[in-house]
Amino acid sequence: MSPPTASSAKTKIDHRPLVVVVGNPNSGKTSLFNALTGSHQHVGNYPGVTVERVGATMRLGDRDVDLLDVPGLYSMTANSEDERVAIEVLRGRREGRPDLLLYVLDAGNLERNLYFFSQLADLDLPVVVALTMTDVVEKNGGRVDIERLQGLLEVEVVRVVGHRRTGLAELREALERNLGGSRRPNRDFGFPTSLEAKVASMAERMARIGVDASKNEVRQALLNPNSPFEETLAELPELRRYVEDGRRELAEQGIEGPALDMERRYDWCGMVSRAVLAKARTGRTTTEKIDLVLTHRVFGLAVFVAVMYLVFQSIYTFATPLMELIDGAFGRAGEAVRPALAGRPVLESLVVDGLITGVGSMVVFLPQILILFLFISVLEGSGYLARAAFLMDRLLGWAGLNGRAFIPLLSSFACAVPGIMAARVMPDPKSRLATILVAPLMSCSARLPVYLVLIGAFIEPRFGPFWAGFALFAMHLLGLAVAIPIIYLLNRKLLKGTRLPFVLELPPYQWPKARDVWITVYFRGKLFLKTAGTIIVALSLVIWALSYFPRSDDETRRYEREFVAANPGAGEAAIGRHVQARQLENSFLGRAGRTIEPVFAPAGFDWRISTAILSAFPAREVVVSSLGILFNLGSDTDESSTDLRDALARATWPDGRPLVTTWVAVGVMVFFALCCQCMATLAAIKRETNTWKWPLFVFAYMSALAYVAAVAIHRVGLWLG
Amino acid sequence: MEAIPLQPTFTFWDLKPGMKARIVRSCSECGHGLRLQELGLTAGTVFEVTKVAPLNDPIEICVRGSRLCVRRREALDLEIEIVE
């Protein structure tokens, strides 16, 4: 470990003290953080990585301190990006050297939690321990001797019970007392004295030549010729020789092997645990009784299906009225400002069709996101989410995902945006990324209108309701079927590297805490609006401009004259629809549709379908109203409109061949099923991965997949006649 | 160089609910072995199988007073013997 230098001592004067909240996953760390800070949290990203940074400013006595909640850790060995960042923070390599660590110690998993504590002790920082879950231990007849624990750990231990806010005031006082204090935790874990002497001299030597290494790393390097520290040593041959000599010397005394460090620490953990924990377990605990049902072969799976059905129904059905409400409100708002802008058509269209519609298309996702995160935080807080992962892991594990992927994938059938955001239930960043990358393939509810129009126009009249239903089902299955080989390929090719062993804990069942639920829902909604929302609105404006310009009054009057000349006695509405169609045809978007007609020709799409597809890239549901405009039906066409079905069924190529055959209809549906025509999804991926690389990758692979599939279907159709 | 075991060796594939087993050896160079040791599955530790998922994997074990779910395949770096 590098000694505090003059510069880091200086930053301490300039900056607020830094308190880092650290602990094992499931130790109640985030819950305690929420209890200490409330909703005054700042959620962002660590620069350069995809790891979310959650911090808050907290009043401690007469000064403000920065409280930082780092991802949960089991040890100081980093196995993933989240863990690496957390360890860097602890070692003072990201935010400056912490002034105090708040270690969250789970009384229910005392021995294992003490292991990480023993490693933190090597950091030479003041530590305050918050002992959680004592209520669970006591309910099972156990007891923790806190006095004794304080004595053995040599730090202050405060018992906190999250949902009753017990111990919070004492904890704050303890934090204040120890901030920047000289008290250090016990560092005697029964390592051989000859080893510790070697570690001390080696660390000193390294500090002198400016190598930044913790005592723990030095000890590992001395015990293990394959430790990660070897990379640093490779560049420093002199030091390396010294380490190798030390290693040889210790090996002669039988002190070698990486396991020695872990075994000695766990011996100490076991000693402490036996000294302070009185267990009086008789019979089954409540959690075990509940688990007899919820992880049961039959009942467990039945409950799982029921819970997932409830989640899916809620985001699919219950969100709809709210979404319609939002849609209606933005529609009315648009109409309300129209008169104020009358006479300035460009501005009117910019505000109403561009800005208000764009903001509306962002806000409309909120109900689904909020409802889904309400469920997730309740399921997570109660402990059920872990059981769901336990039940489903085998099913999803073979493809390289894990049991927790179930929630984001299922949610994506309603909407990929909350689904992608829900992928953060997976701690393993590789599984999380793989899930995010395939989530947009799940057939979301915005694809439904497209299916309904085409099935209603081409499948149902020709093949009857049975095949219509089958087609709808097949469309929903398609994305899932395609996702499986994609995940497989991603794991083999793109997401290489060591995979974390899947480690899951089934925590005791608890009532979810209202505060934690509220904070999760509030911050997920806020983050979506703030980060993904700006991208959505910006892109909406771009698409609006492309479909509006170029436009001139002269042109518009010419369209009118032409139409009236060709159709004498045509009504106002019919003229309006014709003008709208011609304007879109003449816009940059329409011209692009014409230009790329040859590209889509192998799939059997004409310029109208091509333009509709282009217009649907920001949001696929737009395709129905685009088709409405292009087929002279006006922009307020929706999927239940029989006019559009008839118009599509009657549409022909210039030479009179029918445009949309059954095969072309299937091709269009498959194209929509596989293509990522949703900028909100891409914005959500950008937000969750903190880079444009992955949204672009998703866009590229899904577009390619959609195109190839549509062409293939058309070819097969031609071949079969 | 290895002595031929007198008893047939067991692996994580053979574990059933209620069984108790002891870690004989663990491979620290293997990524999974190291992580599992850090979670308390060090040599000599006895653990009990508390649950097996409906699809036979993963399993939940109780080690050092903590419950932990692991996949059988990923725990093969640990050499075990059955205690009871």
What does this entry look like structurally?
- The complex is a heterodimer of chains A (721) and B (84).
- Chain A is α/β, with parallel strands linked by helices and 721 residues long.
- Chain A has 33 helices and ten strands.
- Among the domains of chain A are: 173 residues, Rossmann fold, CATH 3.40.50.300; 62 residues, no CATH class; 155 residues, no CATH class.
- In chain A, a hairpin with a 2-residue loop joins strand 3 and strand 4.
- The longest helix of chain A has 39 residues.
- The N terminus of chain A is likely disordered.
- Chain B has one domain: SH3 type barrels (Roll), CATH 2.30.30.90.
- In chain B, strands 4-3-2-1-5 form a five-stranded antiparallel β-sheet.
- In chain B, strand 2 and strand 3 form a beta hairpin.
- The model of chain B has no long low-confidence stretch (mean pLDDT 84).
- Strand 10 of chain A pairs antiparallel with strand 4 of chain B.
